[in-house]
Design brief:
The model has no long low-confidence stretch (mean pLDDT about 75). The chain is elongated, with a radius of gyration of 34 Å. It has a domain of about 40 residues. The protein has about 110 residues and is mainly alpha-helical. Helix content is about 50%, strand content about 0%. It is built from three helices and no strands.
Length: about 110
C-alpha cells in the first residue's frame, strides 16, 4: 500500500511540475489571428488552360458564321448521351477494350 501511495504522489508531483513548466513556457505568447492575404487578380483563373496556353485568339473573319446557342447545346447533350451509353455498356461488360473504345460523337476529348 505504501508503494502505491508513493507512486501516486510522485505521479501527481510530476504532472504538477510539467503543468507549471508548460505555463511558464507559453506565458506571454498569444496566437496571432491570421487574416487572409488579399491578392490582386492579375489574370483571370482558367479551369482547363494554363496561363501560357491563353494567347489571344485571332479575330474571326467575315467567313466565320455565328452558331446559335441551341445548336451547341444540342451537340453537347448528344455527346453526353453517347458518353453515358458508353459508360453503361462498360458497366455491363467491363473489359479493357470497351474501356478505351471511342464513341461516335463528333466532339473530341
Amino acid at each position: 500500500m505504501e508503494m502505491f501511495l508513493m507512486a501516486a504522489v510522485m505521479s501527481l508531483l510530476a504532472v504538477a511540475v510539467s503543468a507549471v513548466l508548460f505555463a511558464a513556457a507559453t506565458h506571454g505568447e498569444r496566437p496571432e489571428a491570421t487574416s487572409p492575404v488579399k491578392r490582386v487578380a492579375l489574370e483571370p483563373r482558367h479551369f482547363f488552360a494554363s496561363a501560357v496556353d491563353t494567347a489571344p485568339a485571332a479575330e474571326p473573319g467575315p467567313e466565320a458564321e455565328a452558331v446559335p446557342v441551341e445548336a451547341l447545346l444540342l451537340k453537347i447533350e448528344q455527346h453526353i448521351r453517347l458518353e453515358q451509353a458508353a459508360a453503361e455498356s462498360f458497366l455491363h461488360t467491363p473489359s479493357g477494350q470497351s474501356l478505351h473504345s471511342r464513341t461516335t460523337s463528333r466532339l473530341v476529348n
